[in-house]
Amino acid sequence: MAREKAVHTKTRIKPAYIAIAVVAAVVIVGLMYATSSSAQTVAVGDNVSVYYTGMFTNGTVFNTNVGGQPLNFTVGAGQLIKGFDNGVVGMRLDQNRTITVPVNEAYGPVNPSLIITVSRKLFGNQSVYVGEVVTNSQGQQGRVTMANATNVTVNLNSPLAGQTLIFRIEVVAIHKKP
Fold first, then answer.
1. Is the dihedral of CA 10, 16, 21, 26 positive or negative?
2. Which among 6, 16, 80, 112 is least surrounded, fewest beta carbons within 10 Å?
3. DSSP character for 92?
4. CATH at residue 62
5. What is the domain range of residue 146?
């Protein structure tokens, strides 16, 4: 028996076919990215979940939910301060952003008419101390800023009024509006 030689032929792919395959792969990957949730951006009306850390301009943290439950809200529905709401618009899933919220887009300036002085007698025999949070008969809460034997001064402004605020935000879920 004669030995048969194995015949090997090299198949040559034309460069034009390679270019077409590369372009097709790029288009497919681009379409997959564009339709994936990571390409979604936050828009007004979307329900989003975020982790945040709120700080004063000196870096002191006044609130955070990092390590806890995410904050869930509908963007633009007025559930949060205007600056925070506006700050998440355009963010992508898993994106981090630091925003600075000026006083007029946060809790507003301190309103002097919300700082009231009342008779100490309204508190009866209860002890009242500076820094204590008290509630009036209409359900408003305020912080005692001065207390003596005759009068108590209560600030009914938000503790964040008059402050420029800084937030570090991470978007962890985006549910697009229907």
1. positive
2. 6
3. B
4. 3.10.50.40
5. 112-155
In a domain, 2, yes or no: no
Same domain, 51 and 75: yes
Please tell me whether residue 172 adopts helix, strand or coil conformation.
strand
* Secondary element (H or E) of residue 62: strand 61-64
Contact assessment for residue 91 and residue 97, using Cβ atoms and an 8 Å cutoff: yes
DSSP 41: B
Q: What is the pLDDT of residues 118-158, one digit of tens each?
A: 999 999 988 999 999 999 888 999 999 999 999 999 999 99
Q: Looking at the structure, tell me whether residues 97 and 149 fall in a common domain.
A: no
Q: Render pLDDT for 37-90 as a digit per residue (tens, 0 to 9).
A: 446 899 999 999 999 999 999 999 999 999 999 999 999 999 999 999 999 999
Q: Rounded to whole angstroms, how far apart are CA atoms 152 and 145?
A: 8
Quick one: residue 68, left, alpha or beta (phi over 0 = left, psi -120 to 50 = alpha)? Answer: beta
Spatial contact of 76 and 46, defined as CB atoms under 8 Å apart = no
How far is residue 65's CA from residue 50's CA, in Å, rounded to a whole number? Answer: 9
